[in-house]
Amino acid sequence: LGKTEEDARNMEGVRDVFTVIVDGSDFSDYPAGQIMSQDPEAGERRKGENLEIHVTISLGEDTGEMPDITKSYTLASARSYMKTLIKQYDLTLEAPEDMMQFSSEVEAEYIISTDPAAGETLKKGDTISIEISKGPQPVTVPPFTNIHIDQVSSQLDAMGLKMGAVEEVDSDQPKGYVVEQDPAANSQVPEGTTVNFKISKGP
User: Fold this and answer.
1) Which residues have a Cβ under 8 Å from the Cβ of 13 and sit 6 or more positions away?
2) Distance of alpha carbon 198 from alpha carbon 182, whole angstroms
3) pLDDT in tens, 132-152
C-alpha cells in the first residue's frame, strides 16, 4: 500500500514471484497513482506458481467545487441547490447569527459570501461558513422641520436617503421651510428610503 504500481512490481519479494494485477481505481486518502488496497494483504503467505497480487490504484481524494450561491440564494434555497453535493461530500452549511451583516447590495436573508468561496475545492466532511445579509443598514431619519428645503437635499444625500415629493401648504413658517415630513423624525428606515415633505407657502 502507498506505492505506485511500478514500485510494487520491482519490490524484493514481489519481483519474479508475483504478477501485479490492477483491478481498477477509486478515490481514497492515498495520493493519486498509489496502491490503496491489495489482495492478498501484506504478510499473507501464498505458495505455488503464477502467484498474483490484485491491487486497486488510488485516484486521490474525492473533491468537488464550491458553487456560487451568493446574492441569488437564501440559506434554505442554497441547501436545496447543493443537495447532491452536501450528500456526496457530507458537507455542513453553517450561518451563525454573528456572521450576519448589513448590506446595501444583497437583499435581506440572501447570501453575501461563503467560505470556501465559489470555485474553491470541497472535500469530504467540509464545513461551509455562510454570511447572510440583514439588508441595508437602518438609517435614523433626522428632524427636518424648520429647515429650508434647499438645505434638506444635502443632508439626505449624506445619510443615504432620497428626496421624495415636496408639497406646498399653508403655514405660518417662512416660505420654503419644512413643516411636515414623512417618515417622521427619528424613524428607523432602510438606506435609500424616500422622504416626502410639506413646506410652507409663506405666511
Assistant:
1) none
2) 9
3) 999 888 999 999 999 999 999
Task: Report whether the peptide linkage leading into residue 136 is cis, meaning its omega lies within 30 degrees of zero.
Answer: no
- The C-alpha cell at 136 is 441595508
**With 80 as the cut, is the pLDDT of residue 8 above it?**
yes
| Cis peptide leading into residue 142 (ω within 30°) | no
Spatial CB neighbours of 143, under 8 Å, sequence gap ≥ 6: 181, 185, 186
What confidence score (pLDDT) does residue 118 get? 95
pLDDT number for residue 119: 95
Could you tell me the pTM of the whole model? 0.59
Distance in angstroms between the alpha carbons of the first and the last residue of the chain: 96
Contact 187, 140 (CB under 8 A): yes
What would the pLDDT profile of 56-80 be if each residue is shown by its tens digit? Answer: 999 988 899 999 999 999 999 999 9
Task: Please check whether residue 3 is in contact with residue 11, taking contact to mean a CB–CB distance below 8 angstroms.
Answer: yes
Closest CA to 105 of 134, 139, 129: 134
| Model confidence band, residue 196 (pLDDT cutoffs 50, 70, 90) | very high
Going from the C-alpha of 181 to that of each of 46, 64, 146, 155, 159, the distances in angstroms are: 94, 55, 11, 14, 16
